Amino acid sequence: MKRILLAGMALVLGCGMALAQGTAPSGFTPEQRQEIISILREAMKADPSILRDAITAMQEGQRTEQEKARREALAANHDALFNDARDPIKGNPRGNVTIVEFFDARCSYCKALHPTMQTLLQQDGNIRVVMKDLPILGPNSVAASRALLAAQKQGKYEPLYDALMRLRTEPTEQVLQAEAQRVGMDWARLRRDMADPALEARLQANINLAQRLQIEGTPALVIGDTLVPGAVELPQLQQLIAEARRRG
């Protein structure tokens, strides 16, 4: 009996909420709307847990739909995620599992994830990491991302990335110069390359891609067909990678 009531509640709950807000669900006569309200009231009197369970069922359904939409978005943007030849690569370029990492150079959670990713790559030599600069935390983030992408032209993306992830001060121009020179870069050349309009186009492409995937913050990792928001611990990463390998 409770299962039947739950099914009915899941069907009419949205209608009941609309009625409570003074809006009229389409497709019901005034008499039917009144009957729906009566059913809701009697059901909740008989067993208040029905409403809680119905809401839980609706929330689960919404999560399922959101996950489905996210997986479809990942599939639709597969090449932009995994096969953009402009993107910096860490780890093994021929690895059998690819991780796409969206990050902001000023993001404290990205900095917290950094040593975990380093350990992962040290322990597993068959992982390819695609780096997606996503400067969402202000002008200094944009400057740091420009410096990183410009560093590619000197073959120094990864050393500068590691330096900025360890940085505990703001990446101002003076700091960027010091870090760039410390890892062996020509600062004058880097500064010129940072002004290249093509870098702005690349960063905007990353932002657009993140929006299509409904990424709301950094870090965010894509592993196979799974989007992982936030910094995660090594065991979870290893589990996700194992699952991706099983799926081929």
Task: State the gist of this model.
By secondary structure, the chain is an alpha+beta fold. Helix content is 63%, strand content 10%. It folds into 2 domains: 69 residues, no CATH class; 169 residues, Glutaredoxin.
Fold topology:
Elements: H1 2-20, H2 30-46, H3 49-76, H4 78-82, E1 89-91, E2 97-103, H5 108-123, E3 127-133, H6 139-151, H7 157-166, H8 173-182, H9 187-194, H10 197-212, E4 220-223, E5 226-229, H11 234-247
Parallel strand pairs: 2-3
Antiparallel strand pairs: 1-3, 2-4, 4-5
Structural overview:
With about 250 residues, the chain is an alpha+beta fold. It is about 65% helix and about 10% strand. The chain has helices at about 1-20, 30-45, 50-75, 80, 110-125, 140-150, 155-165, 175-180, 185-195, 195-210, 235-245; strands at about 90, 95-105, 125-135, 220-225, 225-230. The protein has a five-stranded mixed beta sheet. A hairpin with a 2-residue loop joins strand 4 (about 220-225) and strand 5 (about 225-230). Helix 6 runs antiparallel to helix 7. The model is unreliable at about 1-10 and about 15-25 (pLDDT under 50).
**What form results from the Cα inertia axes?**
elongated
Count of discrete domains: 2
Order of helices and strands: HHHHEEHEHHHHHEEH
Could you name the CATH topology of the largest domain? Answer: Glutaredoxin
Secondary-structure class: alpha+beta
Q: How much is the average pLDDT?
A: 87
